[in-house]
Every structure is written in C-alpha cells, then in structure tokens.
Design a protein that fits this description.
Length: 419
C-alpha cells in the first residue's frame, strides 16, 4: 500500500524538476523572459503554498485512499494539458493542476505512515519515501532529456500523464486508510499500530495553533531556507547555468542534476535512520544544512567566478545530501505537536518548502533578467556568469536562515508533552 502512494510521489518529484531540461525549449517556443520562465516553474508551487493547511485537514478527515485518487487525477490532467498547450497560459494552468495534486501527496504519505508504522520508525520511513520517490527527479533529468530528443517535450508530458492516471487508480484499489483493530485479515495487531483519529478542526484554528507553537517555526524555516535553493539549481536553472557558462550540452549538464538527486536520495534515509538511532533531530539537521551553505558560498564567491567544472561532481552530491535536512523537519514537527494533528502539522511545516520555492524561483529569474546583456541563442536568453552569481547570493542568504533555525531548534525532552 505504501509503495503505491510512493509511486505518486515519484511522479510529483519528476514534475518538480522537469522544467530544468525543457527550460530553453519553452523559452524559445513561448518567447519567455527569465522571470516568465520562473513564474511557469513556480506555478507548481503556488498551489502548494495555498493547499498545505487545507490539504492537511483534507488528509486528516478523509484518509490516504481517497486523497491519493484525487491528487493523482489532478496531476494527470495537468501533465496532459501541458502536452497539448498552444500557449504559455495553458502551461501555467497545467502546472497549477499538477501543483494542486502534488501539494498533498507527501502529507498523505505521512498520514499513512502515522497510521501504519510506529513512532520510532517515522523518520526512517520518511527517509525511505524520499529515497524511492527521488527516482522521479532522476527521470526528470537525463532520461527526460533523451525522451525530449526522441519524441519531443509534448509527447513526454502526455505519456507521464497517462502513467499518473494508472498510479491513481492503483492507489484507490489497494490502499486502506488504517489497520483494522484486532483484524485477522490485516495481520496487524492493534497494539503495534498508532491509530490517529480524524481531527475535526478548521484551517483557521490549525493556522493559529501552528503560529502559536514557536517550536514549529524552526523546522518551517529549515524548509523555507533549503528546498527552494535546491530546486533552483537542480530543477530550474542548474542546467541552463552549466550550458550557458561552461559551454556543455544539456545531456552533459543533466548528469550533474542526477548526482544532486542521488545525494538527496541517499542523504534522506541516512539522515532519518541516523536521527532515529541517536534520538536527535537538531545535530544532524544543522550539519546537513551547513552543506548547502557551503555549496552556495562557493558558487557565489569563488575567486574569478567559475569553479572548475570537475568540482561539480562532488558539489552536486553535497547539495543533494544537504537538502536531505528537510526530511528531519517532519519528525521535528511531529514531536512537538499532538499526534491527532499529524497531517495538518506536517502540512504546515511543509508549507515552508513550497513558500521557499514560490519566492526563489521567480526571484532568481528576475535577478537573471536584471543582469541580462541581450544575448540570445536559438531563441532563448543566455545569461552571463555575474547574473547567476547574484542569484546564488540570494540562495545563500536563505540557506543561512535555515542554518540559524537548525541551531535554535529545542529538542523535546524525554517524557515532555508537546504544546
């Protein structure tokens, strides 16, 4: 059951980074500026920002099974619309629909895990979820670049939409919301499961609860400061940066994006396992966030501007491992909140992920436009190195904010009661 929900998150991860490969193609076909492309990419995250608290309430009330069907069909519709879109406006609408569905997928997984797994397994299972679902980001790099060369970007997105329909229907058929107490059919004894009752609370009440709980602000700020920059490089501008500045082709540049996501995929379960093993969220989170700070510091202030291309093999992995710090934000939030609010609280913390994305993607594009020197190649804008460096400084500031938040997180003492 868990694997079918993860399959939907694989698709979500694909869409999160897919614009990296097709950025120049969309720019040329629809005559986009950097800010315009940034807004198209961020349209996916606008719905995340809007839907996090309502999405958490939805999951808490109706359970993982029905939510999986609705989210999958929404993402499928968006992907197919993008494939047939004659204008940037319809691409934007397609991205909104993908974001509408994708915004609740990870929250849905966390709710399922809260129902079916022990508290001590939560961070480990969350890390495994990221490890497996990260393969979607890998498909959104080199495999997508190959597919675009073979059949075009439109057919590629239509095909992904059809796969998403199948994943949604499989989830509806196989997933059960929670174990049945003392049921011989599940083989899952009641005393081993954590049963989380549906919470009947309004979005306003939940928002008030989150704002008043200062401990939740620390994991929120970690997500805000880290994931937006991670996607700016690995999901939107990294390929263009390497192609424009280093003169390599898209397929070569996408290899570094693969390494970035491999680092994230390996780092997430490792961080979850280590955190559960040592009983600490703060220390591993602070160490991982420092990796991201190092990455942006080097890109922004390396003497002469251009790092040796060979350094990106290690740096791409470093950024990915560092971005895995976000996985620890969810057990952080869960440990300082009542268990009945699992879906809603993780949704509130997850809001930081997509608020960071919604801010950084168009902002980075706007900064590139300010530094554009007028050069166009094959209908797409080509930005100079210095414009990218100004954008990297902004990402660095966000990462420093996350590092400060990690250092200021207060671990819950054994036997204490949240809130």
């Amino acid at each position: 059951m868990w694997s079918f929900l993860i399959l939907l998150h694989v698709i979500t991860s694909f869409h999160r980074v897919s614009f990296n490969v097709v950025a120049d193609l969309l720019t040329a076909e629809f005559n986009l500026t950097g800010a315009g492309l940034g807004n198209l990419a961020a349209a996916y995250t606008y719905m995340y920002v809007i839907m996090q608290i309502p999405g958490g309430v939805l999951v808490d009330r109706f359970g993982p099974r029905g939510v999986a069907l609705l989210t999958g069909l929404s993402m499928a519709a968006g992907s197919i619309i993008i494939g047939f879109s004659p204008s940037a406006v319809l691409v934007f609408i397609g991205r909104l629909l993908i974001g509408l569905g994708g915004s609740v997928v990870l929250i849905n997984i966390f709710k399922f895990q809260a129902n079916w797994f022990r508290t001590s397994e939560f961070a480990t299972m969350s890390g495994l979820a990221i490890l497996i679902s990260g393969s979607g980001a890998l498909f959104g790099a080199t495999p997508l670049a190959v597919s675009v060369n073979l059949v075009g970007w439109r057919s590629s997105f239509i095909f992904v939409g059809l796969i998403t329909i199948a994943a949604a229907l499989l989830s509806w058929y196989f997933v059960k919301n929670q174990p049945q107490r003392n049921s011989a059919t599940t083989g899952f004894p009641a005393e081993n499961g954590e049963f989380v009752e549906s919470v009947q609370a309004s979005s306003i009440k939940l928002a008030s609860m989150v704002i008043s709980n200062r401990r939740l602000w620390m994991p929120f700020l970690i997500n805000l400061g880290i994931f937006g920059g991670f996607i700016v490089f690995s999901g939107t501008w990294g390929v263009s940066y390497l192609v424009h500045v280093y003169g390599i082709n898209v397929e070569q540049a996408s290899v570094f994006m693969v390494l970035t996501y491999l680092g994230y995929m390996v780092g997430a379960p490792a961080a979850g396992w280590f955190s559960d093993r040592v009983g600490s969220r703060k220390v591993p989170a602070a160490v991982l966030v420092s990796f991201c700070v190092t990455f942006w510091l080097l890109l922004a202030f390396w003497p002469g501007g251009m790092l040796p291309l060979g350094m990106f093999y290690g740096l791409s992995l470093l950024l990915g491992v560092g971005a895995a710090s976000t996985i620890l934000s969810f057990p952080m939030a869960r440990e300082v909140s009542p268990s009945v609010y699992t879906g809603s609280v993780t949704a509130a913390v997850n809001l930081g992920v997509f608020l960071g994305l919604a801010i950084l993607q168009p902002l980075f594009g706007y900064v590139l436009d300010l530094g554009w020197d007028g050069r166009i190649v094959d209908g797409a804008r080509v930005y100079p190195l210095q414009a990218y460096r100004y954008g990297f400084i902004i990402c660095l500031l966000f990462a420093v904010t996350a590092f400060t938040a990690a250092l200021n997180y207060r671990e819950r003492k054994q036997g204490s009661t949240a809130l």
